[in-house]
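Notes from the 1:1 (GR / supervisor)

We went over the backlog. Supervisor wanted to see one worked example end to end before approving the batch request, so GR pasted a single chain during the call. The sequence is below; no edits were made to it. Supervisor asked that the structure be written out right there so they could see what the output format looks like.
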Amino acid sequence: MKNAQIGIIGLAVMGANLARNFASKKIQTAVYNRTAKRTEEFIAEYGNEYIEGCYDLPGFIQSIERPRKIIIMVQAGEAVDAVIKQLEPLLQKDDIIIDGGNSHFNDTIRREKSLKEKHIHFMGCGISGGEEGALKGPSLMPGGSEIAWKKVKPLLEKIAAKDFKGKPCVAHTGTGASGHYVKMVHNGIEYAVMQLIAEAYNLLQIWPPQPAPNIANIFDKWNKGKLNSFLFGIVPPILRKTDELDTRSKNNYLIDRILDKAEQKGTGTWTVQEALNLGVAVPNIAEAVFARAVSSRINEREKLSHKFDFMSPHQKRHDEKDFHKILEDALHISILLTYAQGFDLLQTASEKHQWKINVSEIVRIWQGGCIIRAKVLDDLQKSLSSKKASAKHLLFSAYLTKESKVCIPGLKEILHMTSETFVATPVLSASLSYFNAFTTQCSPANLIQGMRDYFGAHTYQRTDREGTFHTNWN
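Structure output shown during the call:
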């Protein structure tokens, strides 16, 4: 076999599918796994003239042309550090290591700094699309030095998904750890959109009570309009799936047997923690994370539902057609405000770390392959790339102004209904609060500053003159 153009370490589902993707584009690929048995199994099933299995690291390194380009696809954390430690003595100047896992961006900063001292390039690359995306075309978010990006760009462009205009869904996100940071925010947005979908599903199954396939039909309709997206598209098949383990019951839909306990792997929490560190408001993402935490408290929820049964969710009379329309509007504006929060965090982090993240380009590479790919990203990209686009906040854009005027009334009406009928809608509620707070001229924060000065002499600023002031309130 010729010298490999790319090497992949780690042959779990994502690493294996990524290797198959490279090979399908006729890119010579070397693969290595910590356990030789897994490598043997992979080669036996998928080996061809473009894939070479390696059974020791020195042989793996020697099989890759210089400057070597190596993608690490192992579990984030200590495993990544262990692989890097093994690679370091085997690599040479200008070789490139790409971490394709969901590593914390602070780990990426540390690793890049350490390897730079040894003249080895390190890139943190967000990869979205799941196992199918890795195989057929993911959205790729590589960050790091411009030199390393130029070396890996031709290879990554060949395996990436395509945006709405047919361009590869990969771009240099910026310097430093920007790639993993962008993927973190992508996942935070994903949390919020999934929670919004769940809230809509909850409302639809209560108002009026109806079987899962009926709700699937509503999502089908929505997915043909402005809510068209990957996540809305997967809801109907989930709702229509029958339970193969329960063949005796009628209307045995699997969704009704799935325990209502949502798990999480941490990227949503990281997003909220980072937003708190930078002082950026991301309430939609935060409420989505908290909603998963509440869902896990199943025993407490069950007991409290009996204790407060007089507050149980109940049906509200409404015109079904109108209700579906205003709920569609409420979801649409809430999703847009979620993106606005994510973009605000990206821009703030970029300024702090001097990463030079181009948010418009990030939106473009999210148009294909990734989990949050959606029709609305086309409008958002046009808005962000416009000459009139503000670098401050998406709410300044003409697009979001127009959509807000159309959809905010629907969001208000939905929340009016839910407040009367005891239905929890944390992210829908957070969306309206965020919009109201961000679009009001006068907030009650002046009283907060007065109280802070009262008990802690923290001082305050005035509206009528420059300077910092303190008052002896007693």
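Supervisor's comment: DSSP finds 19 helices and seven strands in the chain.
Batch request approved.
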